[in-house]
Design goal:
0% strand, elongated
């Protein structure tokens, strides 16, 4: 289980490191607030990280109807671990790696970090 979670986190961290080149100090347009705010908040945090995590959780939920019981337990544990620590960790890591221009930060991200942390699968019964 920890290997699966570590793999998901590791791959996302690698993507963030590669994308960080777009806000390098050597790139003049990256220092402009009208670029930095939307890029760091909308494109990276919301469009990449939070949507990626939302897709993982949605896929887990969709598998509930057809997954064998053992796989269902593994996926449920992954979702629980993500809600308890991984989502908050990745959101904080993204904010540290891509500090947004505070004047350009939107009031509400969709999905928000708190929505993803509080995510619950839809009730499902096999019977």
């Amino acid at each position: 289980m920890s290997t699966m979670k570590a793999s998901l986190v590791g791959k996302l961290k690698l993507v963030l490191v590669n994308v960080k080149e777009f806000i390098n100090a050597d790139i003049t347009f990256a220092n402009k607030p009208y670029f930095r705010g939307p890029f760091c908040v909308h494109d990276i945090k919301q469009g990449l990280v939070l949507k990626y995590l939302e897709d993982i959780l949605r896929n887990i939920s969709e598998q509930a109807g057809s997954a064998p019981p053992t796989l269902l337990l593994v996926l449920a544990r992954l979702a629980l671990d993500m809600g308890n620590s991984t989502i908050s960790y990745l959101a904080t890591l993204t904010d540290e790696m891509f500090p947004p221009d505070q004047t350009a930060v939107p009031e509400q991200l969709s999905p928000s970090v708190s929505e993803l942390v509080a995510w619950q699968p839809a009730p499902y019964s096999r019977f």
